């Protein structure tokens, strides 16, 4: 007979030790991420089957004003076996633990894929005027674990969040990834389109150098990032945020986070923040200058990060979020084409889901967020 599954508080050290036994986990599920998100109250929790630890999560709490009740958020987690036949018990144990602590809702984002679209399929979809979104194109792969997880969440009363919802999902549901497992540099290059391969050669010929920086290079990254924000009309994060992220993640593991800079004759052409947890590597933030764009600094920096990911034994190079569009009239189509050139795949994740634990408070919070 199986031992009962329970959830209890664990220390950051126990949490990190558990993550090190796993092939990979989202960096949003590392204990260090609590230091980055100081505006949330954070706790580490563990799942136990009897006395054996079988999972862990970083839970971020957003407390309601004047009430000791919180939205409990598990971004890109928890780190459990999502294919487990005891998944319902695992989720119910978390629900009960958080409800006892005063959570009025549980939000989580299972780190499991449901659908995948390869490069050829994406290109065909972009060329077809009848197809405007990924979910209108037939996927190359339907993932059984991911689709089973979605069905189970629905049965348990979870509500799927989408960007159209009142308080929109925090993490992207669609991402672009380059699979690296079992591949060499030559394999990855061969999978890219002709323009990417040509531009990679061009960067070397033009004398573009890519280097790994450190905390002292964050101001240079940030200047480039602010220029990009002004050009692309988004609100940039402050330098202090990146300094806190770098300090917290590198203190937890010196190989966790890196700053990359692509330079030419002393000028920074592009700069990125790169994160790796085990076998999963992320292009987390990127920026480029308007000057010397013909030298392809962004291409050079992406290729170096892919090379370093391969060398570190990563099985996935993740270019993070994409919008659910293949419409040529969409403003994001240029970025999508840039990512498609890597020869990777568009991946739909299970997305973010809410389970109301106190329906009245949940409804009030939803209305409050919609009016903001």
Written account of the structure:
The chain has 372 residues and is an alpha+beta fold. Among the domains are: 5-109 and 352-371, Gcn5-related N-acetyltransferase (GNAT) (Aminopeptidase, 3-Layer(aba) Sandwich); 181-314, Gcn5-related N-acetyltransferase (GNAT) (Aminopeptidase, 3-Layer(aba) Sandwich). The chain contains twelve helices and 16 strands. It has helices at residues 12-19, 33-36, 87-100, 119-127, 144-155, 185-191, 194-205, 218-232, 239-252, 297-311, 333-340, 359-371, and strands at residues 5-9, 41-49, 52-63, 70-74, 103-108, 113-117, 141-142, 159-160, 174-179, 209-212, 257-264, 267-277, 280-288, 316-321, 345-349, 353-356. The protein has a nine-stranded mixed sheet. Helix 3 (87-100) links the parallel strand 4 and strand 5 (103-108). Helix 7 crosses helix 10. The chain is globular. It starts with a strand and ends with a helix. The mean pLDDT is 94.
């Amino acid at each position: 007979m199986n031992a009962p599954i329970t959830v209890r508080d664990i220390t950051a050290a126990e949490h990190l030790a558990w993550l090190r036994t796993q092939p990979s986990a989202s960096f949003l599920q590392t204990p260090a991420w609590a230091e980055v998100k100081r505006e949330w109250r954070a706790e580490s929790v563990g799942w136990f089957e009897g006395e054996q630890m079988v999972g862990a999560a970083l839970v971020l709490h957003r407390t309601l004003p004047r009430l000791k009740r919180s939205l409990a958020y598990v971004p890109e987690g928890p780190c459990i076996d999502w294919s487990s036949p005891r998944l319902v018990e695992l989720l119910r144990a978390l629900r009960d633990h958080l409800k006892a602590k005063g959570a009025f809702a549980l939000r989580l984002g299972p780190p499991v894929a449901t659908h995948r679209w390869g490069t050829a399929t994406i290109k065909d979809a972009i060329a077809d005027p009848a197809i405007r979104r990924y979910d209108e194109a037939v996927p190359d792969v339907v993932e059984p674990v991911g689709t089973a997880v979605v069905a189970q969440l629905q049965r348990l009363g979870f509500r799927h969040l989408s960007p159209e919802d009142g308080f929109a999902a925090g993490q992207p549901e669609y991402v672009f990834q380059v699979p690296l497992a079992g591949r060499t540099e030559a394999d990855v290059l061969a999978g890219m389109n002709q323009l990417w391969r040509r531009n990679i050669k061009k960067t070397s010929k033009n004398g573009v150098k890519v280097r790994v920086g450190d905390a002292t290079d964050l101001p240079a990254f940030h200047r480039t990032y602010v220029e990009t924000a002004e050009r692309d009309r988004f609100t940039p994060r402050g330098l202090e945020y990146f300094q806190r992220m770098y300090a917290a993640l590198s203190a937890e593991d010196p190989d966790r986070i890196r700053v990359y800079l692509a330079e030419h004759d002393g000028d920074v052409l592009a700069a990125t923040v790169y994160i790796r947890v085990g076998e999963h590597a992320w292009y987390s933030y990127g920026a480029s200058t308007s000057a010397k764009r013909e030298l392809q600094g962004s291409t050079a920096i992406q290729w170096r990060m892919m090379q370093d990911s391969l060398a570190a034994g990563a099985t996935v190079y993740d270019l993070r979020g994409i919008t659910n569009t293949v419409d040529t009239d969409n403003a994001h189509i240029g970025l999508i084409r840039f990512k498609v050139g890597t020869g990777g795949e568009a991946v739909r994740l299970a997305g973010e889901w809410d389970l109301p634990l106190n329906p009245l408070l949940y409804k009030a919070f939803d209305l409050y967020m919609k009016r903001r």
